[in-house]
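New to this. Please check this protein:
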Amino acid sequence: MLLYLSSILVRITWTLMFPKRNVAAVSVRSSNGYLLIAASGGLNQQRTGITDAVVVARILNATLVVPELDHHSFWKDDSDFVNIFDIKWFISYLAKDVSIVKRVPVKVMKLMQKPPYTMRVPRKSEPEYYSDQVLPVLLRRRVLQLTKFDYRLANDLDEELQKLRCRVNYHALKFTKPIRNLGQKLVVRMRKMARRFIAVHLRFEPDMLAFSGCYYGGGDKERYELGEIRKRWATLPELSPDEERTRGRCPLTPHEVGLMLRALGFKNDTYLYVASGEIYGGEKTLQPLKELFPNFYTKEMVAGDELKPFLPYSSRLAAIDYIVCDESDVFVTNNNGNMAKILAGSRRYMGHKRTIRPNAKRLSALFMARNKMDWETFSGKVKSCQRGYMGEPEEMRPGRGEFHEFPSSCICKTPFNHSNVINRYNDHISGSNPTLPESQYRYISNSSDLDEKSSEKFQ
């Protein structure tokens, strides 16, 4: 009887939270046509495009064809959707929201007299734009492709559509079983070495530095190498490296990230998991960070030979890093890019865990003057600079930032006691020895377990 009443309560809660969730699945016959989406960029940029593609299909009452991933970005990864995300789960989980198919039916393609019409919508377009400008084309052509689909939907939508975004991003987009299994293995191995660990997304790859227009003291060699990469973006303006650093638009060096963490109170016995691709400058650039934190690990170090099948695919490697960063006790970003925003949002949505973002604008001047002050003074100034950037629960305010970083409209408004969370981190910083926390294991392979956990979240 208690189990029966509990199941009824879950259904009622689900209905109240997502009133449109229980409508019948959209029939392909009633669809206004087929929507093809070409996502662009790296893994996390494409993730934002996929999330918004589902919402646009809902707005247009269209049948979404599983999005096509970018094979021509800087990372040159030829992975398709099915290689990164669990496609069956994606289609079935969203069946009551949007009709999704793997490809346009052959009979529909045969009836078409012309190739699919292609168009690109402006960035951050409102739902009304899709209704007024895109829907008539879809109705006329029946099959429509939207190209370079990244951030093509407005950030602020009505509550129903925002919650659909949450269902896509945090529940429907589940990595494939091989990625989930290896990612979780790395989490378990880190936990065996240390009761707590920090994940740091360095984002100090050559493409990032070239795009930023910043300079890090490498002379003519650095200027030439990054200048050549910069030519990939024909529309980038000429930038002053000194001005960009003063504005806080330059990623911190690995050494500066390490100094910031030590100044905030993390001791040299802290375990670091460093998520990154190829670091510009290689081992020479990383050495100062390793000296500050000798317990330094990467996916290559923790996974060993198990990583070999993933090595040719940058997006699958990024997905493994994503899992470990998401499960870490503290996540530290080095820029506010796609991975940083999505992970910060995920860690808020799934239950608050700390995400530290460097206040680069204020820290830049401090780092340039650090040799003119003693360590105690420097540490105090770093802590002052970082107020409001330490991932405190109250930092999430309605209307602040982009949806992917601040999914406040999808988080229950019931009171939640954050004191235990904050105390745990304060204990860690002060050098105490907390007990081993249970891993959240959100990357489980059993879909029924995931659905159960989703229901628990919505309760």
Remarks:
- The CA atoms of residues 259 and 285 lie 14 Å apart.
- Residues 1-29, 414-423, 428-459 have pLDDT under 50 and may be disordered.
